[in-house]
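Anyone? Bumping this.
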Amino acid sequence: MSKKSIKYLIGGVLILAVALGLFASISSDNLTYYRTPGEVLASPEKFSKERIRVMGLIEKGSVTWEPAQTKLSFRISEDRQQFLTVTYIGAKPDMFKEGQGVVVEGKVEGESGFVANQLLVKHSEEYKVDPNDHSQNKEKYFRSMGAQ
Amino acid sequence: MIVDLGYFALLASLVLTFYGIFAGLSGVHRNSTNLITSMRYSILAVFGLVLVAYICMTWAFISSDFSVQFVANNSSTDLPIFYKITAVWGGLEGSLLLWQIILAFFAAIVAFRYKDTNRETHPQTLIVLQFSTLFLLFLLIGWSNPFARMIPIPGEGRGLNPLLQNPGMVFHPPALYLGYVGFNIPFAFAMGSLLAGRKNDDWILTTRRWTLVAWFFLTVGMILGGNWAYVELGWGGYWAWDPVENASLMPWLTGTAFLHSVIVQEKRGNLKLWNMLLIISTFALSILGTFITRSGVLNSVHAFSKSNIGPAFLVFIAIILVFGYILVYKRQGDFGARLKPKGLLSKENSFLLNNVVFVAMCFTVFYGTVFPLLAEGIANKKISIQAPFFNSILLPLGVLTVFLMGVTQALGWRKTSPQTLKRNLLIPAGISVAYMVLTPILLGGGMALVILSGVSLFALLVNLIELARSYQASLARTDLSSRFKALLRDRRKRGGILVHLGIALMMLGFSGNFFGQETAFTLYPDQIKSFAGYQLLFKGSKEYQALNAKHWAAELVVLKNDQELSTLYPAKAFYPTRPEPMTEVAIHRTLSHDLYLSLASLNEDGSATLNLFYNPMVNFVWASLVFYILGMAYSISYKPVQKRLGHLEE
């Protein structure tokens, strides 16, 4: 075998090793699957060990925000039929409000339903707003934040 | 009227670009100087026309001409004039126009600056450049026309996204584009050199400064982007392995590899084929970056616009890759190495290793960014790849490059004796090993933190000593004027060292992420929260007007050992054109750390919910900018001696 082809062989093996290493590390802990609220409700015990992401819309009237505990609970669904109860400990994100799409990441934890430690609000690209309405005020802000 | 003039200017520049390409091709074919000269002037005219178009667009923004859809979507009458001017690149269409004007400007420089020095490859280079112009003009005229009108004309625009109303965001896109477009120039010279069948290294020498400038702006653009995310998005950090961030990191990684490997070709005549492949990849990746940012194909907080220009970008990337690789394949006989390294310990080999690692890093980022797309498209499984994946692979590789950054400083070309290595590296290595052993014992801290900061310290010390040595020689002079002159000596080396110091500093800053703290809590007026050695006293809420937004803030006094340090006002900002309030963070900055406060909500019972972060060494990251600027000033002012290896050898 010539010197050159040995070089290429070593290079090729190296690249293959790196690629395989990448693949192996992706398929283990570093990857999170998305599930629907329906899938989680169908077999909650299955998701009590595995961290997953669930995407859904926040149900109207389901939001409770307890500032003293920084505890946010709400229900999400994809089909408006199966609702998954989510508890999130942390501050409420800016765009969080009823009807908004969210992604939560966490596990199912017994009675309390889905406990999330990550909450992402889907940014809607379309800011639908009447350009002549300049009446932003506190009351509106409270309403948008889901205050009772 | 003015708007129509702008659109007409774009149309005219499209026609002229077609003419330029045609004139260039037939000029080369018939060996006609007149046609080539004519092409050069048409490139100049295209720059003039695009400038007209750009001014017209800016005028439409300043005069709030909401008959133009792009203006109506990205501006409003209440916007401060400064942001009206910068809003031109606040959306897809305008940012393509910005890209186009930078490209046209660069092309005009190339058309006149290098006509005599690079005569054999100049026409081909210009033809390649004009194809990039053509692509952008097609986008601007067809798919995403910034001058498109809307009916009925709205009375008020929808306003510039408040997230973009920030100085960091104003300069972040132009810097990135200067970087992306900058890499178009070495790419065009490389292709021009292949098309003309030249076997020498001219293109490397000619484009040295272009490569430096491109790298510099890409780096600055990314740091500004990180800084913008830090002060504007309110989640306490500046980098999240978001697809759009990754999109700019990929060309940066191959671009950095290229920056180093061209030195090997310039000095030793090696790595010719590798350099060709690198510049093709870097340019293709910078287009891919724009595609990812602008097509909205990947879910991302940054992809501000969704549009259907995706396929056009993919076609352009495919053309770059296919054209580039075929050309390289056809000329593969021209890439023989001239001076091979003698020993294992040599600058060449260290640079080669550095290149392999950079490309591996780029591949990792590419894989992690694109894999979820493939999984969804092929297996119909929706997955998410996040920070742990990138950190687990890129952290060790990053540490390796930083280590090389120190070691290479002590290596010579061809071969280096172990004694030299020992002499130059013993002290820094000793200090950083001592640091790495003692820190976990005395202070605690994870492996990742200790290794990353320890190796960064090593690289910092080696480069610092090297810089000190270089200046020591200069300062040994007695009279002032020769001292001053000596300061300007050895510019290339000092420039490189300064940039490396910046990188080492930035890496130290990154290691701060491993011992940051964060918490979320609610305070009632006059309550105190203790955190990371500080006490925060909540005084109540406060309303005030700043620029065009009404702010509603929580007032917090920062205390340390009962001493009042400052008062912070994390706020919600209400912009007249937006339904959602924006979060305005407040930061108590010190040299070694930030106390970072973002207001989550002001509650009806008078309490405030806050996110609080303790971010150590984050300012090192921003401070590294100073070193990049200084280093670049040194490096760019250095003019490589026009010794051509080809002549040197024969």
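Late reply, but here is one note on the structure posted above: The first strand of chain B starts at residue 383 and ends at 385.
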